[in-house]
Amino acid sequence: MIEFFLNGQRQRVAAAPDTSVLELLRGPLSHCGTKEGCASGDCGACTVAIASPEDDRQLLAYRTANACITPAHQLQGAHLITVEGLARGDALHPSQASMVACHGSQCGFCTPGIVMSLFALHEQQRATPAPRQPLDDHRLEAALGGNLCRCTGYRPIRDAALSMDERADTRPPWADDPELEREIRHLAPLVDSKSQDSKNQDSKSQAHYLTPATLADLTAAMQRHPQARLVAGATDLWLDVTQRLEPFETLIDLRQVRELRQIEETADGWWIGAAVTYREWEPLLAEHYPAFAHLLTRLGSAQIRNRGTVGGNIANASPIGDTPPVLLTLDARLRLAGPEGTRELPLASFFLDYKQTALEPGECVAAIYLPKPKAGLEQRVWKLSKRREDDISTLLGAFRWRLQDGVLTDVRVAYGGMAAIPLRVAAVETALEGRKPDAETFDAAKQALRESLTPMSDARGSRDYRLTAAANLLERWRLTLANTDSTTPTQEVALDAYAH
Predict the structure, then answer these.
(1) What is the pLDDT of residues 415-431, one digit of tens each?
(2) Among the four 140, 210, 314, 482, which has the fewest Cβ within 10 Å?
(3) What is the mean pLDDT of the chain?
(4) Residue 264 belongs to what H/E stretch?
(5) What is the pLDDT of residue 391?
(6) What per-residue string of b and e applies to 9-35 under the rule 16 or more CB within 10 Å gives b?
(7) Contact yes or no for 309/403 (Cβ under 8 A)
(8) Beta pairing partners, 461
(9) Mean pLDDT throughout 71-94?
(10) What angle do CA 344, 348, 350 make, to 5 degrees?
(11) What is the DSSP string of 319-330?
């Protein structure tokens, strides 16, 4: 059984392990305002807001999520807000009133998801101590980048976002309940659940949703259920349900495993728990690796970054995952956990072939080691995709180096989308190491690239396109070095490196 609050009302429902929040809403709970569009976390029509007390905040923070790819069991102990829960009678919430006033809706199918993204943005603005800065383009893009609309052209939606503060500050009825937050915080964590979905009683009578609390519990559960799938953010895994129609009989949820939710600082770096989300990771990157942090603004959408995890982006072994190429240039390491304990290995040794990794049976990724930046090292990351917002990579290039006495040293070059795995290109690094960053040096590096890699061809880009684009990123790096003004702030240079 799952116990949570929906628009201020306590709920207790049963669901099979492979039930999504969207299915739960539109089925047993009869809340049909949330729409199904793409069923893959791309369009945002199914956007809801979820507040969970898992991070010790004094006040609950409402974060957007794609209901179509969020496991229903992850609602345990949370407060789920849908478009039905915003208005107070006939008085609309500012996110709704602004959409009406600015003509932000035409066919209306995507509108509930857009309203929920605006609701979360409005709540974040409300929680910001005065004096509050007005909304800027960056925050609007971050909040709305995961909501697609074929009708309006987006301008009236942006107008609606910018005018929310001008509307009557109508609060939902549940916001007046002084006991609600206390009741949410006192809901117990989910205990390992056996499916009680009567519709699937025959086919799924042995289905389980397991929620270990410690790393030891996790490895024990994996031994008892060797065929179980691991789930954290589900932003990739759940496509097996919605797109491939595969049933999940047993899932093991990582989000309650304490060791996987921690960021542990050491003398020379940080161990990032595999179940830490992109949103939780971003402040650390913003302080120490600003170019890497800016990449996260191109990784999916706010809905994805609120739930997607660092470990998941590595463990799924996609050749076009955004973070692995960058982590390869930073000499990241992994901690793997299994029945025999934990072991460490370089990230470069983890990827073996397409969707194949060095994980042994019964093992999982427990943490990623991110070294602290060393003085003088610089970094650039460029992602090429068909859309700037909310899209996966066609190609990603990551570059790290030190310019010392006019020559390049400590060079690291890695690509995603150029092979069956994300990888460093040793031949390119050798062509650049110890050389002046001039046209002749980079021409040699481009030739080494062409001789070292034979990229794949697929719907996102042909082999020739990828080779040309990868070489052009090397040229862009050269031009960046040639045009760097020592008086230009480092942060400004890092952000400029992301112009698409």
Answers:
(1) 999 999 999 999 999 99
(2) 482
(3) 90
(4) strand 263-265
(5) 84
(6) eebebbbbbbbbbbbbbbbbbebebbb
(7) no
(8) 458
(9) 96
(10) 60
(11) TT-SHHHHHHHT
